[in-house]
Amino acid sequence: MFASPIAILARKYSEIFGKGLRAETIHSAFKVPIDDNQQYSTSYSLNKYNVLVIDEASMISREVFNFIAATLNRMMLRPVVVITGDRCQQPPLATVQGRTTTVTSVLNDDTFTKNAVKFSLYHQLRCIDPAYINFLNHIRYVQPLQDYLDRFQTGHVCITTDQPSQDQLWNALVEHRDYVVYTVSRAACSRINNLVLTRSFQEAVPICSTTTCFQCIRQHEGPCHPKQRQRRWSCERTNWNSGVKREQHRPATPENRQLAFAHPVTKVLKDGSARVVYPFTPGYAVTICKCQGDNLGKVLLWLDCPLVPERTAYVGLSQVKRFNDIIFMTSLLSSQLKPVNIHAATQT
């Protein structure tokens, strides 16, 4: 059994190993509640597996891991549990007092690590460019100086200003049509996707319009979309299976009575505010935290925030095989490349 915090990894492992491996997201495998009013249940079916591998543990929060541990402790017969992850990669994100922030990963939780049998192995298997491997190994632990970064990114920057205009972004997208755009924030991701729709389909007649409490979204035939962001891969409702939109159907209700189709869903938060949690958006841009562990062909990286969460930039930079496969939307700043434990790190 293979469990991952993001659906794209579960899907890829299932494709690689076929029927010999059961791959699910952590939320699906352990039935982790996603809403406060969701009924608690224990996934006793996990006891039929000999080995349970939990991947990308750097993205698993202490709260979610406590749920995983509680599930395993209720079983009379338990599988061997192998937890893999990199402490220098993307930490888990959570909403704290209405703001998205990083929280402690299980890999940095002494309560767990002091009781686990640990094996340490680090090797960069994705990248095949020796010079770029040296750069990635450097920024894992050390915050680089700006002069060093400026020399490194020469010839790889699309826009020289910190606040790019719509025209500048569009020109960069047109010039790099076969690149996937990586962003830090969801706002920048949405900006890119909306820009593509606006410029590419501005003369086209929409096949329908979907109205939310915030805006009216025009749906066109032709743009590339991911199959919506759901947590259950075995039901074929998962994220980042790309597809092309052809027609619009009325939303339906699946067996579990939960909305599971790609259309805007409005969620009311505890403070009374509302936000769209699963909007039907195109897939030209994606946030870094959604694709940790993915192998991409070419990346147009946009670190759109002056202060990037620790290790997030490293994850975005390490998704390609060679340096020539990555372009930067705006110039990289030294302050954006924070390694793990920045207070103990030095600049060089």
Describe the structure in your own words.
It is a single chain. With 348 residues, this protein is an alpha/beta fold. It is 23% helix and 18% strand. It contains 9 helices and 17 strands. Strands 7-17-16-8-15 form a 5-stranded parallel beta sheet, with helices on one face. A 4-stranded parallel beta sheet has the order 2-1-3-4. Helix 7 packs across helix 8. The longest helix is centred in the middle third of the chain and has 15 residues, at 186-200. Mean pLDDT is 73; it is low at 227-241, 248-264 and 342-348.
Brief overview, please?
With 348 residues, this protein is an alpha/beta fold. Helices cover 23% and strands 18% of the residues.
- Strand coverage percent: 15-25%
* Unreliable spans: 227-241, 248-264, 342-348
How many E-type strands?
Answer: 17
Query: How many H/I helical runs?
Result: 9
Class inferred from helices and paired strands? alpha/beta
- Strand order within the widest sheet? 7-17-16-8-15
Integer-rounded radius of gyration: 21 Å
Distance from first to last alpha carbon: 43 Å
Give me the strand/helix succession: EHEHEHEEEHHHEHEHEEEEEEEEHE
The global form is globular
The biggest beta sheet reads: 5 strands, parallel
Mean pLDDT: 73
Please estimate the helix content.
10-25%
